[in-house]
Amino acid sequence: MLIGGNPIKVSNLGVFRSTGLPMERFHPGEVAGIRRQVCADHNIAVQFFPALRDSRGFLFPLPGSFAEVQGGCHETTYGFVVPDLPEGEYTYVNTIRFQNNLVGRDESATYPPLRVRIMR
Questions:
Q1: Cβ(60)–Cβ(83) below 8 Å
Q2: For residue 74, which of 31, 35, 34 has the smallest C-alpha distance?
Q3: Where are the alpha helices (DSSP H) in the chain?
Q4: pTM of the model
Q5: What does each of the 120 residues of the chain score in pLDDT, given as a tens digit?
Q6: Exposed site from 14, 82, 104, 115, fewest CB < 10 Å?
Q7: Domain 8-115 has CATH 3.40.50.790
Q8: Tell me, what DSSP letter sits at residue 70?
Q9: Helices vs strands, H then E, count in the chain
């Protein structure tokens, strides 16, 4: 606890439509859901910084959030409205910030990426 470390392990379960059906292709304005299995050593407050990255490396931020991740393993879904971006392949990326030490130092980690295709 003095030196920190990442108390969270994440496994991707996929990208889903708002209906719950698996889908990787979306039109702007549709709701996409990123489903993951999140396991934490203990309860921890986490700030999320999600984004879509295009093939050129441009990063398009999505709405962030702040949540308490409960200890144990849980399925989570982050939903967002697909932005009005050019058609193409994007990588959904999510960096998190948390404190897992006794000195109050911020630490960060990156969740595994997922592919999302935006269509017109």
A1: yes
A2: 35
A3: none
A4: 0.90
A5: 445 678 899 999 999 998 899 998 999 999 999 999 999 999 999 999 999 999 999 999 999 999 999 999 999 999 999 999 999 999 999 999 998 877 778 889 999 999 999 998
A6: 104
A7: no
A8: P
A9: 0, 10
